[in-house]
Amino acid sequence: MGDVRPEYVFLGFLVEGPAHGYHLYRLYKNSLEGLWHISESQMYASLKRLEKRGWIAPVREESLGEETQSRQQFMLTFEGISAYERWLWTPTAASPRLLKLEFLTRLYFAMRWNLEEAYGLIEYQRLSLEKELNRLLDSVPTTGKASEHDSPLLFDISVLARDFRIRQIRTALDWMKELL
Questions:
Q1: Mean of the per-residue pLDDT values of the chain
Q2: E strands, the chain, where?
Q3: What is the pLDDT of residues 156-170, one digit of tens each?
Q4: Per residue in 29-39, pLDDT tens?
Q5: How does strand 19-20 pair with strand 70-76?
Q6: CA dist., res. 44 & res. 172, Å (int)
Q7: Helix (H) or strand (E) holding 15
Q8: Collapsed DSSP state (helix, strand, coil) of residue 117
Q9: Which of the two ends of the chain, N or C, has the fewest CB atoms closer than 10 A to its terminal CB?
Q10: Which of left, alpha, beta for 54 (phi over 0: left; psi -120 to 50: alpha)?
């Protein structure tokens, strides 16, 4: 179905360079808070998972002043850059929830870097959705044989589910055409 964990949000910000956790959280709050709902503690848990995977590494910096304190920054590793790029260019599954979270997050980061890359991302996602739509249109809906105790609606539920997915994908495609 896709990966809707918020780790990629923070990888996206770290592509721009090393940052402290607090700065990453401020970037998120100022840009993607309307899309994602991530608490500060969830962000730090995400950073720990990224560090455990080897996708980010801590960088310590000593602050100067009367009180010497150590502050930790995070930076992307080579593996983290590779994971981010794979995520960025992997089409989102044809699901409204995933398109809202994953695709719009990908689009946000692509637009931060390069508008042409953002158009390419939209086109790549559009082609993926068209492929899924064609697969659904070419498939023959299967229905089970209803028993005398089944409701008539239950008999055609697979047809209804297929039709619903087809309409969702068409709506998403119309929206993407407007974006382009």
A1: 87
A2: 19-20, 56-62, 70-76
A3: 788 888 999 999 999
A4: 999 999 999 99
A5: antiparallel
A6: 33
A7: none
A8: helix
A9: C
A10: left
The residue among 21, 30, 22, 38 whose CA lies nearest residue 75 is 21
| Placement of tokens 């890359």 in the chain | 117
The token pair at 96 is 């409204």
Task: Judge contact between 159 and 177, C-beta under 8 A.
Answer: no
Maximal C-alpha separation, the chain = 82
∠135-165-110 over CA atoms, to 5°?
A: 85
CA distances from 36 to 119, 130, 136 (A): 23, 26, 30
Residues, the chain: 180
Q: CA-CA distances (angstroms) from residue 148 to 23, 133, 143, 145, 154?
A: 63, 34, 15, 10, 11
Report the distance separating Cα 94 and Cα 175, nearest Å. 13
How much helix, strand and coil, in percent to the nearest 5, is found in the chain?
65, 10, 30
Find tokens 């939209």 and name the residue. Answer: 122
